[in-house]
Amino acid sequence: MARQEPRDGLERELERLDGAPYGRYRGLTGAWRLGTGRTLRLVRAQADPFAPPGRVALWIDGREAGFDPELWATPVRRRALAGYLVRCAAREARGERAYHLDAGGQEVLDRSSCTVGADGSVTLRLGVALPGPRRRIDGREAWRLLGPGLTRLADRALRAGALEAARVREFVETVEDAAALRAALPGLGLVGFVADGALLPRRSGADDRPARGAGVVPFRSPEELRVTVTLPNAGEVTGMGVPEGVTLIVGGGFHGKSTLLRALEAGVWDHVPGDGRERVAARADTVKLRAEDGRRVERVDLHAFVDHLPGGADTTDFSTDNASGSTSQAASLCEAVEAGARVLLIDEDTAATNLMIRDARMQALVAKEREPLTPLVDSVRSLHRDHGVSTVLVMGGSGDYLDVADRVIMMDAYRPTDATARAREVAAVPTGRRAEAESFPGVVHRRPDPASLDATAKGRTRIRSRGTDYLVFGEHEVDLRAVEQLTDGPQVTGVGLAVELLVRRGHLDGRRTLAQALDLLETDLAGPEGVAGLLSVHDEDFAVPRRYEVAAAVNRLRALRVLR
């Protein structure tokens, strides 16, 4: 929060304004004292009672907050502590309809709604619907909300003395362990880890909490894949390690294949205690892919997967405003690798079948010179061997992937077994299929034109989310429905803010590649001013995004122009 000398007398000022026209709330913007070690900053007042809530920031200095310095000793611990405090504040504010707090869900993200400083100070940012019956200031009610109400909220939710120390520590240590586990995976030669005892199924598609009941099967690793990792707080933890290379997840329908993949998909995030996936981790550079009919593709080299199109289009420099399922998935794969992804997750249920496989019978019926598509099965090993990109695939309908798999995990009633040896026996029987490619040639790095990434509309910066599905960016609406690792609306807002930051700070300058600009962005967002850099143009709730979702938004912006 921007620091300035706070003023005294907010209660007196609200008494003086009682009954005044509603717009005079704007005269209160700035910082006000709320007792010892506390400052309330009115960031933005509402234009009228029916506008979105005003925005306030409540700052508490480190001595007043009183948390053990161990709890805020590192950036990961500060993020975790802030995640716990904002959830406490949201519970405390429940029932007060004027307060609007972004507490998040099962994931513990770096959110603007609550931050902990390197000095142990706490800043809570929230919306407050300022009272205004008949478009007149209600000074007494406004003081109740901004003074005693927020003071009580701070006393009960943001101070160490009011909270159960063991629960605070459990939350912080759970997040720290998850981050340490994720960071350890590359050194262990793994792309993912699922701890014994993890609960992977969710309650429903609309409820991300863990499923309950007698039918929920705790995860248990096959002996062949069991590894032990040592975490900072939990100590030694055993579970299934998913190795680098090409891994298939197979099994019958409804036996847990996609559930396991979704757990790995969510493993790029830390989770709250009790989520069931606290010790499920995927490498930080993991990206989920799917087909996406209708998306725009701008100057992507797709020739590894698409060639000699009937219309004669150049697939080494391919653009379309209406991609098919196969071309969209091919583009998303190339774009993900361009952005730095080193692990790809693919579920056959949401993939383009003709990009995934072309079996022997179809090869016999349709000659290769009449088929523009080269299936992934023929380049997936090269992705790892030549470019260090591993792939985890859910596959229940094509045995041809057994020929290229390094490891095969069989799911049977949500219980995994290592089926690699049996899969190799099956694959030893020839099918007559011929490989249609020898290698994956790599990706061509592109240079976005920063002038095409304009976040303004009618002269004002316009960035907001519509749930996890759409990002409003300037005059454009970006369709993000197929970007499945986005967690919530504030994170989508964070994606838009990060794109704006790429341009504003000159990281995208027409000379740098997208990957080079994303490297600079990551440095910015990981630094002490990470949240502050995004707050400088936006005072609504957001969560700090990964580079891969930022790249996905850039690539789906229909105004994007790429320089060569």
TrEMBL record:
Pfam families for the chain: ABC_ATPase, ABC_N, MRB1590_C
Gene3D superfamilies: P-loop containing nucleotide triphosphate hydrolases (3.40.50.300)
Organism (species): Streptomyces cheonanensis
PANTHER family for the chain: ATPASE
Cited SUPFAM superfamilies: P-loop containing nucleoside triphosphate hydrolases
Boundaries of every ATPase of the ABC class N-terminal domain copy: 9-158
Protein name, per record: ABC-ATPase domain-containing protein
ATPase of the ABC class C-terminal domain sequence ranges: 166-440
Signal peptide limits: none
Annotated MRB1590-like C-terminal domain residues: 463-562
